[in-house]
Specification:
Blueprint lengths: L6 H10 L3 H6 L3 H21 L3 H29 L1
Helix pairs in contact: 1-4
C-alpha cells in the first residue's frame, strides 16, 4: 500500500516549483522531473535575460495560472492516495 501523502504539501510544492509535488507524491515521476527542470531553466533565463514590463506581467499571470492548476492536480493525486 502506498504511503499516505499530505495533499496540501503536494499542492504547495507544485505551486512553488512545478513538478515537485509529483515527486513528493511518488506519482508521475517523469512528468514531475521534466516540469521541475523546465521551471528551473525558465527561472534562470528570467534572471539573466529579463523582459519588458507588459511581457513580464503577461508571463507572470500565465505562470500563476499554470501553478494553480498543477497545485490542484497534485492535491487531487495525493488525496487519492489517502
Amino acid at each position: 500500500m502506498p504511503k499516505r501523502k499530505n495533499p496540501w504539501i503536494a499542492a504547495i510544492l507544485n505551486f512553488i516549483l512545478w513538478g515537485l509535488g509529483y515527486l513528493y507524491n511518488g506519482k508521475r515521476l517523469a512528468l514531475g522531473l521534466l516540469l521541475l527542470i523546465g521551471d528551473m531553466m525558465q527561472n534562470i533565463i528570467w534572471l539573466f535575460v529579463g523582459a519588458d514590463l507588459p511581457l513580464m506581467l503577461a508571463a507572470v499571470i500565465s505562470f500563476v495560472l499554470i501553478s494553480i492548476g498543477l497545485a490542484y492536480d497534485a492535491f487531487k493525486e495525493a488525496k487519492k492516495m489517502k
